[in-house]
Design goal:
By secondary structure, the chain is α/β, with parallel strands linked by helices. It is built from 3 helices and 7 strands. The longest helix is centred in the N-terminal third of the chain and has 17 residues.
């Protein structure tokens, strides 16, 4: 929008930028990103075992999630990995990280041996902090004395 100054010169304009539409667009984009951000990290579909415990408080910002589907397929953070390359790929993922923490999502239809072999592989790699992801939906909070 241009305004004429008191000098009377029609070519002497005051250039102002109207920031109201810019602010409106930025607020709409902010709302869209706030709504869609939680939906971006879905992960691999795994039928988790049910437990009666509650979740631990999440203190990690971006954990490494190792998922095993009911078909025995391995995924590292939604990236498919062959069983033979699992150790190499995990070392690559954990090489730049300070914390060597793995969250294991194993389908409840898997054999016990497959899960234990995976725990053994992680242990031989020197990973001592392993979290088992379970389904706590419908879990009852036992009263503590």
């Amino acid at each position: 929008m241009a305004f004429h100054r008191e000098t009377g010169d029609p070519f002497d304009h005051l250039a102002d930028i109207n920031v109201t539409p810019l602010v409106d667009v930025m607020l709409v984009l902010l709302i869209i990103f706030m709504v869609t951000a939680p939906m971006l990290h879905q992960g691999v579909a795994v039928a988790l075992p049910k437990t009666a415990t509650t979740n631990l408080p999440a203190t990690m910002e971006d954990p490494v999630v190792l998922s095993i589907t009911k078909d025995g397929l391995y995924y590292i953070n939604e990236t498919p990995v062959a069983r033979g390359l699992l150790r190499e790929r995990l070392e690559r993922f954990l090489g730049t990280r300070r914390d060597r923490i793995i969250l294991l999502k194993a389908d409840r239809a898997l054999s016990y041996g497959t899960v234990i072999e995976t725990f053994d592989l992680l242990n031989r790699m020197g990973i001592e902090n392993i979290g088992a992801v379970t389904d706590t939906s419908g879990a009852r909070n036992p009263s503590r004395k």
